[in-house]
Specification:
The chain has 99 residues and is α+β, with helices and mostly antiparallel strands. The protein is 33% helix and 32% strand. It has a single domain (2-98), classed as Alpha-Beta Plaits (2-Layer Sandwich), CATH 3.30.70.100. It holds the Pfam family Dabb.
Length: 99
């Protein structure tokens, strides 16, 4: 099993009052990838990190094997969700993958 963790900060131009709705849409659509992307087992979306955190939101996923991480990244369903609900609003992506 492989864990794939991604963290982002919101772009400075994103207003505070917009963030709850954006987080909800991100969570809903990213979680909806389970069953659509081969090898993707679980998705957790972290909307409320502790104040000690360096990033605003995080995605914590598990995949069956290491090769699935690369396949997930280019899968059309994932790309569509990322391009529509995540990438337009975030910056400073950090990623950590481990077995």
């Amino acid at each position: 099993m492989v864990h794939h963790i991604v963290m982002w900060k919101f772009k400075p131009e994103i207003k505070e009052e917009e963030k709850p709705q954006l987080k909800q849409a991100m969570a809903e659509h990213l979680k909806g990838l389970v069953g659509k992307v081969p090898g993707l087992l679980t998705v957790e979306f972290v909307e409320q990190p502790l104040s000690s955190s360096t990033h605003d939101i995080a995605l914590v996923t598990t995949l069956e094997k290491a090769e699935d991480v690369a396949a997930y990244g280019v899968h059309p369903e994932h790309v569509k969700v990322a391009d529509t609900y995540v990438r337009p609003y975030v910056m400073e992506r950090a990623c950590l993958d481990y077995e």
